[in-house]
Design a protein that fits this description.
Strand content: 25-35%
CATH topology: Rossmann fold
Helix content: 10-25%
Number of domains: 1
Number of strands: 18
Number of helices: 5
Shape: globular
Order of helices and strands: EEEHEHEHEHEHEEEEEEEEEEE
Radius of gyration: 19 Å
Largest sheet: 11 strands, mixed
CATH class: Alpha Beta
Structural class: alpha/beta
Distance between the termini: 43 Å
CATH architecture: 3-Layer(aba) Sandwich
């Protein structure tokens, strides 16, 4: 079955039809996006210093004793002593992995892959029927929503995109899809070949059907970035659709295009990064440290 993507399902009621986990990196947390997705997450995992970010957010909400991560994984060179002590005293597993050839992000993905059947034993690896509101249909298991993926240092942002790409192209990857949620966007890597992206609830200024604020999940802006070399793409459902269009760094790239349909289709002869702007209501309140 051709790849299908439904990135706003994690923000839309009712509960998403597929299981997912939240991975918190050591980057600013988009508070409103976290609030929208956290109630339905199977668990929260922190990558080393991401525990500091998560602790500060929960402390601000007076929930640091009740909203605990399921695990903290990494080489533990960034977690603050008082944060580590707090979670150790409350029985949170803090897993030391000294491997310097892998990032804390990779260590967390390896942990989730090894423990997926324990996290959601009834649903992982089972196919999910196509959702009535669009989306679903193709699924291998637990999705991973990465918070803080593109904030902070530029080299770390490129590292997160690198991990998205390597996981999306890894034939041995046995779980679901990875989505990076930053201060303003949700991003993921489209597979080679045809891809279908479901885009309900887009704030399209020229749309004849006006939606109230609570029904908006995306702004109209998207980008398609050729992260693995020159690619040829064909699109349907955008303001400026293209056919067999060559895109490459140093040449032409598709940025600031606009969604014009509830379903967008992209064919690419190579994996490409697809990034979508979150609705304004999810972009306010970014927790800085």
């Amino acid at each position: 079955m051709d790849p299908e993507w439904d990135p706003t399902q994690f923000f839309r009621p009712p509960r998403p039809p597929i299981p997912f986990v939240i991975l918190v990196l050591n980057q600013p947390i988009n508070e409103r996006a976290f609030t929208a997705i956290s109630d339905y997450a199977s668990c929260v995992v922190c990558a080393d210093g991401g525990a500091n970010r998560y602790y500060d957010l929960m402390k601000d909400r007076a929930q640091e004793d009740t909203k605990l991560p399921s695990a903290i994984i990494g080489d533990l060179d960034s977690i603050l002593p008082h944060v580590r002590q707090h979670y150790e005293e409350r029985g949170v597993p803090i897993l030391y992995d000294p491997d310097q050839d892998s990032t804390d992000f990779t260590k967390c993905l390896n942990y989730l892959r090894s423990n997926a059947s324990r996290i959601v034993p009834a649903t992982v690896a089972e196919p999910v029927p196509k959702a009535e509101n669009g989306g679903g249909g193709r699924h291998r298991g637990l999705d991973v929503l990465i918070l803080g993926g593109l904030g902070g240092r530029v080299d770390q942002a490129f590292s997160q995109i690198h991990h998205l790409y390597t996981t999306a192209t890894d034939v041995s990857w046995s779980m679901g899809d990875l989505y990076l949620i930053s201060e303003e966007s949700i991003s993921f890597v489209l597979h080679q070949g045809p891809n279908t992206i479901y885009t309900p609830g887009v704030n399209r200024p020229n749309c004849t059907t006006k939606l109230d604020m609570s029904s908006l999940y995306l702004e109209e802006n998207i980008g398609i970035i050729p992260i693995s070399g020159p690619a040829h793409i064909t699109t349907h459902g955008l303001e400026w659709d293209v056919t067999n269009w060559r895109t490459e760094m140093g040449g032409q790239i598709s940025t600031s295009n606009h969604i014009r349909a509830d379903i967008v289709q992209v064919y690419s002869d190579r994996p490409v990064l697809f990034t979508m702007e979150l609705a304004a209501r999810f972009k306010v309140g970014v927790k800085q440290r």
